[in-house]
Structures are given as C-alpha cells and as structure tokens.
Amino acid sequence: MAEFVFKLPDVGEGTAEAEIVAWHVAVGDMIEEDQPLVDVMTDKATVEMTTPVSGRVVAVHGEPGDMAAVGSPLAVIAVGGEGVGDSPVRAASSPPPPPPLRGPPPPHSGGGGSPPPPPLARVRTEKPLASPAVRRRAHEMGVALQFVPGTGPAGRISDDDLAAFEASGATPTAARGPARREGVEEIKVIGLRRKIAEKMQDAKRRIPHFAYIEEIDVTELEALRVHLNATGPKDRQRLTLLPFVIAALVKALPRFPQINARFDDEAGVVHRHAAVHVGIATQTANGLIVPVVRHAEALDPWACAAEIARLAAATREGKAAADELKGSTITVTSLGPLGGVATTPVINHPEVAIIGPNKIIDRPVVRDGQIVVRKIMNLSSSFDHRVVDGYDAAAFIQVVKALLEHPATLFLDQT
Per-residue pLDDT tens for 270-317? Predict the structure, then answer.
C-alpha cells in the first residue's frame, strides 16, 4: 500500500498561503478521484480542492481557521494495496438515551425497612408550607413545591424533603416566571467572516472617515420609477431605487474626480478613474460581499438594474467570478426596507467614498407654506478625509440630491 500526500497547490495571483475553511472528509473515509477534499480561502476567493486519487484518508493536517502555506501537506491518502479496503468503519456515536420522563416519585413498592411517610394530600392551588430558604432553593432547581412531599408538621417541606425529591429522580417542574439562562457559545471567526472582519478593521484603522447625511425628497423619483415599471416592456428588469442612485453618481462624479478614486496610501498616490465601477454591497449567507457593476456610465437604468440583479444572484449563490468582486471605484450600500433613519457606512478600502441610501418614509413637510406628505429618504455617505475635503463632500452630495429630486435631469445629456 502506498501513500499519496496532497499538498496545497499554488492557486495563483502570488498567493503564499490560504486559510482552511472546511474539510469534506475525515480520517478513515474512503474517497474517489475528483471528490471534494477541502475548501481553502485566499485573499481573492474560496477554492474547493478535489482529490486527484482514490483511496483511504489516513491523515489530515490543519483545522478550519488554520493557515496553510503553499506546498505544505494537507492530507495523506492510502492508495492501492489490499489494506485500502480494510479500513475500520468509523462507528457512529449513538446519542445518549433521552432521560426518562419523571414526575412526582412513585408510591413505595415494598422492600426492607420502614416505608417513607406518605405524601401529604395537597390541593393543587394550595400554597405548600416551606421556609424562604427552601423556596429559594426550589426556585433555583426549577421545582414546583406542590409536588414535593412534606414530612414536617402539617406537611411542611424541609431541605431534606427537597433533597429526597431530587434524589428520587423526579423531574423538576419549570418554575413560573422568567428563568435564568446560562452558557456561552464560542464561534471561531474563520473564512469569509474573518476576511470581512480584517477588511473592516483595516479600513477603520487606516481611513479617517468623514460622514455626511442629507435628506432627499424622492416623491417625483418614486412616481417615475413606478410609472416606468408599469408601462415598460414585461421582459425588462424591474427598476429599484439603486439604478437611479447610480445614474446620479455617474452624472455628478465628473465634477468631483477626487471622489471616484482609489487611494494607495502606502505609495501616497491617488488614482482618479474616468470609468465608474460601482461596488454593490450584497448580503449573503456568509457575510457581506461587494460585486462590481463595471462601466456604470455606459448603462441605462434598465441595463444597470439587470446587472445588479445578475451580480447579486451570482454572489449569493457563490458563483461570482473573481474579477467581478474587485476593482470598484465607489461603493453603494443599502439596507433596503431596513435602511433606518441614517447610517455611517464604512469605506471599502482603497476607495475614498461610499454612499448609503436609507429607507423611504412618508413624512409631513412644508412646501409653499403648506404641510404636505412627501416621500423622504436620507442619503448617508462617508468619505476619506485624507483625499476628500468636507466642503467637496457636501457639495457632491448636494449635486446628487438635486439630480434625484429632479429625476428628468438624469436623462438629459448635460455638460
């Protein structure tokens, strides 16, 4: 019987190590060629490694969360020979039998010695006799005292009676009222969650955030959006708020090129981009991932909506390509109906700005001296104060505000 050592291969892009995310096999398993072996995560993506041979797993190296260097052994597989098929089957550990249902102790069934005193007949609603100390102990045990036989005068329950009740195997009856909860669950931060944590920590440590929040009247924009969805072709992607927000960014950013940028703070260079590559913060089962709508300046609202939907679906299904998850020049993050009143979004380093539309709410506002109900949305934003001055950030948001409040201007070819 020979042994095959599976080593972490070079997954490209200069990666020197990868994090073990999940094992698909265990020691003793029989595996076939091309069967999933282990998932590893690099700075770019999660990669599923498959075994190039068939055989029995005799060793695995590393636990989920451990870092493995390229070329280091991950698993040892016994291949060929008679001993391969002779691996012992791992016995499934049988779950412990459930505790028997227990109530008040059964009647005495005979045997040596004197029988214990019979329980005092007690009406269910009758308050048992017991000292405050006994009552406190019973409460901590979760025992309803009306089920505890009392051997004291008039059926008074003592500490010994409570101890005998517990020793008899009776199940404590849940006490009325709120009960204390105990226990601490340890969750190891690994995989994508660790990458997110590291990226957020790095962004907050390196970037001096400047937050700016503005109120926007989107009544006209919402009316236009509803009209376009109702009258447009059925095969077109339905429009949400995001394509209009992106259209406003595309219109405004040429006037503020320092905002559509990426800052290489180690080299001390700001890269201002002509193209608008918009990151769309997308919630997935594994955490927040940011796919990129490329060249948003070349997309109309329907094409933009279709691309957002495609990227979101691919990202949530784990099928987004590596180049679809990098290269954004500005990010939009929205909690949709959970958007709240305002947020202070964290900049997606090395970008210098992030925009966060919040929930649209019907609010009473004063227009021409009259109180009217309008659809109001707060637009939250954060800027890298090393690159973007507060005045420029505020001026930029005011331009975006004007575009969204007068949506016809989104479709005009203005210079």
Answer: 999 999 999 999 988 878 899 999 999 999 999 999 999 999 999 999
Domain for residue 66, yes or no? Answer: yes
CA angle 125, 128, 130 (to 5 degrees): 160
**Is 145 in the same domain as 196?**
no
Catalytic positions are 385, 389
User: Same structural domain for residues 151 and 293?
Assistant: no
Answer yes or no: are the C-beta atoms of 182 and 340 closer than 8 Å: no
Number of domains in the chain: 3
Q: Which of 60, 57, 61 is nearest to 78 (CA)?
A: 57
- pLDDT digit string (tens) for 312-362? 999 999 889 889 999 999 999 987 777 788 899 999 999 999 999 999 999
What the block records as the tokens of 198 is: 């590291």
How many residues are recorded in the chain?
415
Range of the domain at 136: 132-167
Q: How many Å apart are CA 236 and CA 305, to the nearest integer? A: 9
Give CA–CA dist 244/177, Å, rounded: 52
Nearest to 67 by CA among 184, 186, 198, 205: 198
Residue 97 lies in a domain: no
The CA-atom distances, in angstroms, between 311 and each of 96, 191, 260, 290 are 46, 21, 21, 9
Question: Which domain CATH number covers 143?
Answer: 4.10.320.10
Distance CA 2, CA 77 (A): 8
Q: Residue 360: inside a domain, yes or no? A: yes
What is the rounded distance in angstroms from the CA atom of residue 133 to the CA atom of residue 112? 33
Provide the token pair at 369.
């001296």
Is residue 317 within 8 A of residue 228, CB to CB? The reply is no
